[in-house]
Specification:
9-stranded mixed β-sheet; 7-stranded mixed β-sheet; alpha/beta; 23 helices; about 750 residues; about 45% helix
Length: about 750
């Protein structure tokens, strides 16, 4: 009950009760990019390959001759100065405030750091230690962790040493990103987080060892708790660690006091403590996954006791409990994760014990350490092989999109009702007969999963008969998503010159959020990297990314080397490549995609001027996508628009272009007066980076659009911009800037 009250207080109280949501003096007075001077005390430190991350508290910030207080702050130090935990340091740099996502489904950086009480960071070229005071215990544990990491790297190599460091020490900085993602998409990413399994082996193991040696529950419990506390301080305090630690303390306390351990009470107490400690974790997927998995074992698994293959039923119980959480926060479900964890979890205990044994033996008996850590290498190699094999199986990932909160609540109500009825039924049966009821268990489980599909998934699809177009915020670049009334999906360009890995971090999360597990057609306007590098990335990512069905390119005569290479890459990956030119179209039910440029009459150079231009028609709705067309290419497109409009008038065209994707990010050299006189768009969409160095959209271009009464939306101010239409009525909404007309 207390946990529920705390959750309600977090939801309703917000900034009135939660200090992490309060606007700090620095947030009120400074903006990202402003120069500041900060002094603070180091409470945590992380080492990266070419810089270090310093976490500061009790900070004093000098900004424009004013002294401001900031509770916590992060400094990314390029100098890698030797700093100890507890030192006070001073550093200079340009502040950056963490931001909310610019597209639906993207990572919420602001929320991630906000729940830790951190609102800003900066990069610094130099750091000065102003006080040599050291927190000896924490700094010694950090040094011990670094020495342990060195041993693992020496005996296991950099790649697998980094992986074992992530599993045993919580240091995931150097893990190969591909391997890390393989674990995540296959549903075994939880083994990379310090969790109850680690604490159970280490804390409980030490407790039982000390209890055997001294014969005292109290002394054994005290030793186990102290050892556990040191391990937690060394590896870091996360939600899963806090939850596991509290529950382990309850277990040890029950043994010491001679009482019966109650998992439900321990779980509720852990939830209360976590929410008191970090209230905003209520909105964190890791919180719900950690507590949901334990709830599944504590509340659901007992219904399946005394059935054969208990590991399978434990995995089923956990998945029944966390399924909506997975879909709500990650938008996909790893179909084979239940079976995969049957192999992975039992080996994890072996891996941890071998890792501990091998690390200790490496200092005194290198041959024994090499043997133990060699077995760790074999297990990790098996894990990776298993993940790659499963990732290549059909339907290994079911991308569903994000269900609504109402759907999630309905699922848990249904699950609770089914569990209650099944518990009532089973309580009246002789437990010895349960083994003969496996078929009924399977049926009940199947019904629950079917209910999950019916309740959770339908809410992710768009309205039937509606065309949806979203101009994504990919920074300085282009990326336009379209979903037709038939359900077919299109992507027009995809790349960025100022956002790293835009395909992985901007485009794909949005697609998964929308429940799009495949892009049927990708149109590439021209070969510039800010239109292609995200698409290239998606193609290269293979089973880890979103598959592409067809690649549509302009006529081959206007290709540059980049387009030629992209075409070869797509063909090598089994993607069909089509060419389209002026006068050709793709028909998708009532949706028509007409190519207006370039055609045979265009004899200019490849590049911006040769950008593919596509006119989208659906009922009375018209939209023109222009890439980076400018100069002689824009002149040719203007003539093509004029000719095409005359032809369409006989087919009922109303002469109105509702939406124009403004060419070349709103540059001064595109969207001329002549072009606008011919198109006369009602709304213009500009895709550009925030505070980009080109000054896009250029004020002259914006003025030309305003002069004809064109309403302007742009990703720098609005984030992702979505247009929806049923062919007669239209709406435009801005993800970051509010709703439009």
């Amino acid at each position: 009950m207390l946990a529920a009250l705390l959750a309600a207080a977090v939801c309703l109280g917000r900034s009135r009760l939660i200090k992490e949501l309060e606007t700090t003096p620095l947030m009120r007075q400074a903006r990202s990019g402003d120069a500041i001077w900060i002094t603070g005390q180091v409470y945590a430190r992380e080492m990266k390959s070419d810089y270090q991350v310093l976490y500061l508290k009790n900070n004093s910030i000098k900004f424009r001759k004013r002294q401001l207080k900031e509770s916590k702050f992060i400094v990314y130090d390029k100098s890698r100065l030797e700093v100890k935990i507890g030192n006070k340091i001073a550093a200079e740099g340009n502040v950056r405030f963490y931001e909310e996502p610019r597209n639906p489904g993207n990572f919420n950086e602001k929320q991630y750091y906000e729940k830790q009480g951190i609102h800003a960071c900066m990069w610094s070229e130099s750091v000065i230690v102003t006080s040599g005071r050291i927190w000896k215990l924490r700094d010694s544990l950090l040094s011990f962790r670094q020495d342990w990491k060195t041993v693992l790297y020496d005996f296991m190599g950099e790649e697998q040493g980094a992986l074992l460091c992530g599993i045993m020490l919580g240091d995931k900085a150097d893990i190969d990103p591909v391997v890390k993602e393989l674990y995540q998409v296959n549903g075994i990413g939880h083994i990379l987080a310090i969790s109850g399994l680690h604490l159970s082996i280490i804390g409980t193991g030490m407790y039982r060892l000390c209890r055997r040696l001294c014969g005292s529950f109290a002394v054994g419990g005290l030793c186990g708790i102290l050892f556990l506390a040191a391990y937690i301080l060394m590896t870091g305090l996360s939600v899963s660690v806090m939850r596991a630690a509290v529950m382990l303390l309850f277990r040890i306390g029950a043994d010491v006091a001679g009482r019966r351990y109650d998992a439900g009470t321990a779980l509720a107490a852990a939830a209360c403590i976590v929410l008191f400690w970090r209230p905003l974790y209520l909105y964190d997927g890791g919180f719900w996954l950690s507590f949901g998995a334990v709830f599944g074992v504590a509340a659901v698994l007992p219904l399946f006791k005394k059935l054969p293959v208990q590991g399978l039923w434990a995995s089923v119980s956990i998945n029944l409990s966390i399924l909506p959480v997975l879909l709500y926060y990650f938008y996909e479900y790893p179909l084979y994760s239940i079976l995969l964890n049957l192999l992975v979890i039992p080996l994890m205990s072996v891996l941890l014990l071998l890792g501990l044994t091998g690390s200790a033996a490496a200092l005194f008996l290198p041959w024994l350490g090499e043997a133990a850590l060699g077995l760790c290498r074999a297990i990790l190699t098996f894990y990776e092989w298993l993940c790659r094999t499963v990732a290549g199986l059909p339907a290994s990932r079911i991308i569903t999109g994000r269900p609504s909160a109402v759907s999630v609540v309905c699922y848990y109500i249904l699950l609770s009702a089914i569990l209650f009825m099944w518990w009532r039924y089973e309580s009246r049966r002789n437990e010895s007969k349960r083994k003969g009821c496996i078929a009924k268990y399977i049926i009940i489980t199947g019904i629950t999963y079917a209910a999950a599909l019916l309740i959770l998934i339908p809410g992710t699809f768009g309205k039937e008969g509606e065309l949806e177009v979203t101009m994504l915020d990919v920074g300085q670049g282009d990326g336009i998503y379209m979903k037709s009334p038939s359900g077919r999906t299109y992507l027009f360009d995809g790349g960025s010159s100022d956002v790293g890995q835009a395909g992985k971090y901007r485009i794909e999360p949005f697609l998964k959020y929308k429940g799009t597990g495949r892009i049927d057609y990708v149109f590439i306007s021209h070969g510039d990297s800010d239109h292609t590098n995200g698409i290239r990335e998606m193609i290269e990512r293979g089973p880890l990314g979103i598959p592409v069905g067809h690649l549509v390119l302009p006529r081959e005569e206007v290709w540059d080397d980049s387009l030629a290479e992209l075409a070869v890459l797509a063909k090598n990956k089994g993607i069909k490549v089509f060419l389209i030119e002026e006068g050709q179209r793709i028909q998708d039910g009532g949706l028509s995609l007409h190519c207006l440029h370039p055609g045979e009459g265009y004899a200019g150079e490849p590049g911006n001027a040769a950008s593919m231009a596509v006119w989208v028609r659906f009922g009375r709705f018209d939209m023109l996508l222009t890439g980076d067309v400018e100069g002689e290419g824009e002149a040719a497109l203007t003539a093509s628009v004029e000719e095409t409009k005359e032809d369409w008038h006989t087919a009922g065209f109303d002469g109105v272009l509702e939406v124009l994707k403004v060419a070349h990010h709103g540059s001064k050299n595109s969207t001329s007066v002549e072009f606008l006189k011919e198109t006369m768009p009602v709304y213009g969409l500009v895709s550009a980076g925030r505070n980009n160095r080109y000054g896009h959209p250029h004020k002259d271009t914006a003025e030309r659009l305003e002069d004809i009464g064109c309403g302007l939306y742009g990703t720098p101010s609005d984030g992702a911009v979505t247009v929806r239409t049923d062919g007669s009525r239209m709406s435009i909404s801005a993800y970051a800037g509010g709703a439009g007309p």
